Amino acid sequence: MCRGAWVACVFVGLGHLFRGIGRSGAQGRFDEASLILGERLEPGSLFRLLADQGHELFPDDYFADLFAATHCGRPTIPARVVATVMRLQSFEGLSDREALDRLQFDLRWSAAAGLTVAPDGFHPTVLVGLPNRLRASDRPRRLLEDVNVVAKAVGLLGSQVRVLDSTPMLDAVATQDTVTQLVAAIRKVARLVPAAGPIVAGRAAAGQLAHDYTDPGKPKIAWDDAQARAVLIDALVRDALAVLAGLPEQPPGPGGDAVGLLALVADQDVELIDPGPDDPDGGVAGPRWRIAQRVAPDRVISTVDTQARHAHKTVHRRQDGFKAHLAIEPDTGLVTACAISNASGAGSSDAGVGVDLLTDETEHLSVLGDSAYGSGEARATLADAGHHAVIKPIPLRPAVPGGFTADDFTIDTAARTVTCPNGLTRRIAPAGSATFGAACRGCPLRQRCTASKTGRTLQLNEHEDLLRAARRQAEKPDHQHLYRNKRPLVERSIAWLVRGGNRRLRFRGIAKNDLWLHHRTAGLNLRRLLNLGLEFHHGTWTVA
Fold first, then answer.
1. 97-144, pLDDT tens digit by residue?
2. Strand order in the sheet with 425-427
3. What pLDDT does 12 receive?
4. Torsional sign, CA 44, 50, 52, 56
5. Residue 291: strand, helix, or coil
6. 492-497: long-range contacts, CB 8 A cutoff, minimum separation 24
7. What phi, psi does 335 have (nearest 5°)?
8. How many other C-beta atoms lie within 10 A of the C-beta of residue 2?
9. Under a CB-based contact definition with an 8 Å cutoff, are residues 69 and 124 in contact?
10. Is 277 exposed, middle or buried (0-12, 13-18, 19+ CB in 10 A)?
11. Angular region, 123: left φ>0, alpha ψ -120 to 50, beta rest
């Protein structure tokens, strides 16, 4: 190649690398997919709206802020195309490659994105890199926020009622048992922490290694032999503890995270015992490690997705993954806010996450929810924000079946006293308890009050007045009418959310799944707006 041609190629390549964000063509073409489909692109459908108004919803600078700090990495694909693919992808529950196949071969997708019948397409990594930038931006939830701006503009979010609810979402990875987690965690440390390799090799040379951690499979034992399983568990835990003991403190980063995960996995499911001679799972002399006869309260269920958790919808129905929280306008079914949290453990309570979904609401609302949202803290937060809680109270349980509940006691929070049904008064301790103790011995009402030998002790909530007022409010006809007529409508929106296999998440971790949830609810809201008659005329959104 001559020098001039080589220089020209270099400048062409640099021009492709540093040119600005791609822009949609202003001039229509005869081979545009929307023109070829014509009326076959059903009026009132999501594809028709995106085809006709995609340039209004996603202008060329829609993602410009994601690249404001750098001249490199700017996509040459118009924002309208990428945003349309992201919206339809989450709406239909597709993987990155499946979404790009639709863009290439489904004319409806091409029309929605404003492309011709022979689009150039783009690489699936764009659907990885752009969401990563979007999550780190100042407005990561813009696809849902912008749809809701349209909904407010046409008066479809003017209702002053919101319903809170949550639903389990299945994780994208397989739940791992204790053996698999121990093996995977040790293998990960050996791969990411250089100092771990010699420790594993040393135990292998001494014949102390429980498993060949370069083998991708499970240890080869007789899995129906209880003694063999017991020996394996003990040896795996000893491998893990030996690796942890031999490593220096790790700095933050992938290696440090892997060591922390190994320490967690080696502790959460096992316990050290000293079995007797009649132990049926013997085979290890002296103290040994075994699987604990308990479940850790915040148990990690997979080393692949360490944020997935066990979720118990009912006592007999267990699901693994995350939890989707929704705030919904009940009359229209539009989602006003949403979030993904752990399925259980810290930061997963319905009351805590649900109340946070109302942070951006500027109007005073009637907030509906089941008893999961009925904590004193949640009610106090709603009251401080000026909202009215129409929430099912947490049921009271008497200490004796059919006996007195806490509401049968008279409480004076100002004087910090409690009076029992027999007229005895006791002071409320700083911790919130009131103890009647010996005064219960000769009480004629004792059989209806307590079965404790030490007498009745009443534990009071910090927001006891709010909880009592809520129980009285729940008995009123207007409260019951509003709750029964509006609260069940949330199930309709949840059904739309998980329809089509979308209860199963496609990503690992809270952050990625939270972005997916916002994109999916944005698509659902937009389709709902179309069903309610959304139209665009002369630069203005209206409802027919």
1. 999 999 989 999 999 998 888 766 788 888 888 899 999 999 999 999
2. 410-412, 417-419, 425-427
3. 33
4. positive
5. strand
6. 492/333, 493/326, 493/328, 493/333, 493/334, 493/335, 493/524, 494/165, 494/167, 494/326, 496/333, 496/524, 496/528, 497/167, 497/324, 497/326, 497/335, 497/521, 497/524
7. -85, 120
8. 7
9. no
10. exposed
11. beta
- Which phi-psi region, left, alpha or beta, contains residue 495 (left: φ > 0; alpha: ψ -120 to 50)? alpha
For residue 153, the number of C-alpha atoms closer than 13 Å in the C-beta half-sphere is 14
Torsion (CA) 511, 514, 515, 518 in degrees, nearest 10: -160
Q: Is 166 exposed, middle or buried (0-12, 13-18, 19+ CB in 10 A)?
A: buried
Report the first-to-last Cα separation within the chain, whole angstroms.
64
Q: Could you tell me which residues come within 8 angstroms of residue 135 by beta carbon, excluding any fewer than 6 positions away?
A: 511, 512, 515
CB 112 within 8 A of CB 82: no
In one-letter notation, the amino acid at residue 290 is R
Residue 124 in tokens: 């699936």
pLDDT exceeds cutoff 80 at 333: yes
Identity of the residue numbered 53: Q
| Confidence (pTM) | 0.86
| CB proximity list for 164: less than 8 A, separation 6 or greater | 325, 326, 327, 328, 350, 354, 355, 357, 367, 368, 369, 373, 490
Q: Where are the alpha helices (DSSP H) in 19-161?
A: 33-37, 46-57, 79-92, 96-105, 107-112, 126-135, 142-153
240: Cα separation from own chain's centroid: 30
pLDDT in tens, 12-28: 333 333 334 555 554 55
Query: Exposed, middle or buried, 520 (CB in 10 Å: 0-12/13-18/19+)?
Result: buried
Quick: pLDDT tens for 149-176: 999 999 999 889 999 999 999 998 888 8
Q: Which amino acid would we find at residue 298?
A: D
Tokens of 157: 């979010």
Q: Token pair for residue 399? A: 């200490």
Radius of gyration (Cα) for the chain, nearest Å?
A: 30
Helix, strand or coil for residue 30? coil
Around Cβ 527, how many Cβ atoms within 10 Å? 17
Question: At 271, phi and psi to the nearest 5?
Answer: -145, 150
Question: Rounded to whole angstroms, how far apart are CA atoms 420 and 35?
Answer: 79
Interaxial angle between packed helices 79-92 and 126-135, expressed in degrees from 0 to 180 and rounded to the nearest 10? 90
pLDDT digits (tens, 9 = 90+) for 476-505: 999 999 999 999 999 999 999 999 999 999
Helical ranges in 326-390 per DSSP H? 350-356, 376-384
